[in-house]
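FORM 7B: Structural annotation worksheet

SECTION A. Query
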Amino acid sequence: MGRKMEWAARADHMKGVPRKMLIMAVGAFAKVVANFLNTTSVHNADTLINLVQSRPQGVPLISVSNHMSTLDDPVMWGFRGFPTMDAELARWVLAAEDICFKNSILSYFFRVGKCIPITRGGGIYQEHMNEALERLSDGAWLHTFPEGKVSQEDAPIRQLKWGTASLIVRAPVTPIVLPIVHRGFEE
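SECTION B. Predicted structure
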């Protein structure tokens, strides 16, 4: 079985019930943190919402953002008006294998939650980059943190990993690419 658990990432795993329950629970957590425990303001939210809900059939979306804390994803999706608790619309995200997939329980949680394990330093042709390409070929939304790590510097991103660019270039249908910049999650 291992910690890869591709079967848990499938939409039909247990008729999708674990994914719906997990996305709803994590989405509710994100809403509470973003709206009740913090002051959140979002600029151009309608652009993201429209791309998530209404982009042309079969056209993938890649969103990219800076990475300020381990809770960026999911909290950054908790803002008012965003369909945070909809498992169908939820993003796929590249997640660090050494952090999110340490054991079977974490692996199951993150796979059900639409996370794709990525080995830091494993290069752009590693096994699960093909899974990310499959999601893009399905017309899905994929979020990436192209810095490849948490960086709490309040400065422009200086060094990006090649993975996101390789996904854009290798995707069978050219994805829509949406950059996102957020601040304050390190607090």
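SECTION C. Observations
The longest strand covers residues 61-65. The two ends are 37 Å apart (CA to CA).

SECTION D. Sign-off
Analyst initials: ____
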